Amino acid sequence: MQKFTIRIENTGEHYACTDKRSVLESMEALGKKGIPVGCRQGGCGVCKVQVLEGQYLRRVMSRAHVSAEEEQDGCVLSCRIYPASDLRVSVVGAMKKNVCRPLAPPPNPQPMNQPS
Question: How far apart, in whole angstroms, are the C-alpha atoms of residue 33 and residue 64?
Fold first, then answer.
């Protein structure tokens, strides 16, 4: 079993993924809340990413969600790809708004009254 690094370009986050787990399964292991996960079988399309760099093995994906042209541009469903090298991906589609949320600003500290 080989281990590779997956880097999400939109957020700068990176995480480990073995060649036995899909990129989506490993993304879920990040523990981020709100990452949409649908069927995990390539039929719903919510986990679309564009692979910017790296090699991967892919399983069958629905053409309703990834056209042949999109696939040539590196768009795939993260539930259907398994890394064969380190990958750099950009989140696209329905998943983007959840993975790429800006961090909430820290709360404003309340001023403390100093004794006079």
Answer: 27
